[in-house]
Amino acid sequence: MKNSILILVAVLMSTFMTAQEKNKKMTFEVDGRCEMCKNRIEKAALGLAGVKYAVWDIPSHQLSLVVDERKTNSMEIKSALAKVGHDTKELKATQEAYDNIHPCCKYRENDTDDSGKH
Model-level pTM? Predict the structure, then answer.
């Protein structure tokens, strides 16, 4: 009986310790180049249930988020970003999604041309 109680207490403690946070802050890098990218990235993130705040910084490429982890997670957010044509370290956009972004938004090395000849 004593062992059963100890096991129950241990299980309950581990459950509470791994509980998902209601307002978790997270930041990760998202590839992009311009104001149009910023709008697209933020809209894709904010379009997910559980994303309460999303701001992408153009110079640093950092997406700052406040997320309800009970409703979404970082991989779901990265998947939404990939669907609109933006890469993260863990998930790359399909070539089709990438091809659908505006020419000035092309951020992949072999697709960028800063000479103005798009």
Answer: 0.77
